[in-house]
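Example 3.2
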Amino acid sequence: MPLIYTFIFLYGITIGSFLNVCIYRIPKGENIALVRSHCMTCGYQLRWFDLIPLFSWIALRGRCRKCKTPISKQYPIIEAANGVIYVITFLVHGLSVESAIYCLMFSALLALSVIDFRTYEIPLGFNVFILALGLVHLGLDFSNWRHYVIGLLSVSIFLAILYYASNGRAIGGGDVKLMGAAGLLLGWKLIILAFFLGCILGSVIHIARMKISKAEHVLAMGPYLSAGIFLSALWGDGMIGWYLNFFKR
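Structure, written as tokens:
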């Protein structure tokens, strides 16, 4: 069993390496598949041994092989985080297709969170990808299709009304699409929980950031909604069960 989870971790950091490419290139409109990876300072085109996820950064001591310019710590952090997320997901949900679907969703959430935090925009492609995963998940559990279709609409309709009523000042269009796509994947109970968790996390953390680091009043909701989706997908059923049992005492 440890060997299986080692493989899952290695696969996760490999996907994490690709996420770094997406995080850097998508906001700039650059191709994520055809352009070879290179040093942003000297233009040195990275060789295969420079691209081994996590381990190459450690071996190079976080610097370009040619010009010795420091390489952002974002690269190993994203890679390691994605690997750990994959392992946690399979530990919670077991070795299943559902775990694989959740892992891919979490990777998309990780990348879009970093991009949204920096640019206040969620690229459409990530939401389309999560929607596609939702359709796959729906097909695997089609007997409960109403649960997922309601999930698609339950939070996203409320946010869409808020979006149009405020002319986009209260919530972003990407956030509306994110909750719709994730709702199709998770179902209505978990996506409602995810929304509440995201709002709580966003309020607490952003207020703390404003106090401590003088962060701007503009709030990028994508990272917090993503955190809510992550928590709900892994432990949401237990949270809901605990909450309901609390009132039965």
